[in-house]
Amino acid sequence: MKRRTFLAAGSTAALLSACTSVAPKAKPHVVVVGGGYGGATAARYVRLWSGGDIDVTLVEPNPTMISCPLSNLVLGGSRRIGDLTLRYDGLARHGVRMLADSAASIDVTRRTVVLASGSLLVYDRLILSPGIEFLMNALPGLAAPGAQEQVLHAWKAGAQTTALRAQLEAMPDGGVYALAVPPAPFRCPPGPYERACQVAFYFSRHKPRSKVLLLDANEDVVSKGPLFKRIWRERYKDIIEYRPGFHTVDVDVAARTAVSELGERVRADVLNVIPPHRAGAIAAQTGLTSANGRWCEVDFRTFESTQAAGIHVIGDAIQTAPLMPKSAHMANQHGKVCAAAVVDLLAGRAPAAAPVLTNTCYSFVSDRDVIHVASVHAYDAAQKTLLVVPGSGGLSKEASALEGTYAFSWAANIWADTLG
Hints:
alpha/beta; five-stranded parallel beta sheet; 25 strands
């Protein structure tokens, strides 16, 4: 009996020893590609809402994030690009692993990402926030060597923003600045019209004989139309001229001339052309751009791609729901809904069945006066999309400095929410 007891005790000890020597189970790994408002938010909240039980790697080649919201103020002269340059330190404090790299290819079957450096990342879930890619082939003149350094888009905040500001400063008083707006959909629907206000504000202070010519491929102002047009009449009547239905299809760079699809030519001293765009290159390369070959279709409950299991797409790259803007605020909301879904899926739980998202877009019409539009979007199970909640949101009655205070507070809050 004693021998049997000893043997049993010995077997138990051996078993316990074996158990304690087994390596702990690896944590699930989420890879996030793109550190803008969508990707950075998703990376932070996957770590936060999983209690650190999910490893997160954020792949982003740039050492800082330069905010597109408020970047038009650089053109108006009331802000500098440094005021909008934000660091990723907060994400690292949350345990997000930062990789200064970019995604070169994705193997959907093996669930791997090959980076430009040659490194390989294996993921359990992949979140793509690739932003936009410009369709330069839609404007053949911009393919010439050096053309894109002369005719700027400045639609990604950074070096081109400061370069466009320098062109405006060098333009003689009495000159013409022309801004060509692409057909919708495009990043930040009110953005071009805010830009027209900012340049007009600058001219009103420093080049009062100069003009802003707004060449819009759309038949009317895409966002806040009546309000913008009233502001142009009341504040910038002799500066801003709006031409709807001018679809720019080419650029004569040497002559600084925009060419419409009808052959109409418009020359400017400073020509600012925003090309049409689509989802970032890595999304197209991976076969995710199923909507007109430009945008990524997703399940709005999780933002999982309809084309590839285990890959979620957020931000400006998606085919949006009805009346959903491609905005920074909306990308931040995509990131949160997606993060919550990914945490649930990796834990074996069902994601939320009916997410609700909010959006606010502020537009500066001077250095301090602002207008806004807001909306609430709820998932509709019958239509399998996000729809604007009737009676939600709203539009400013007029521009005001008080709304300017709100806009700056919004920026500070979303920067903190996105980057930790």
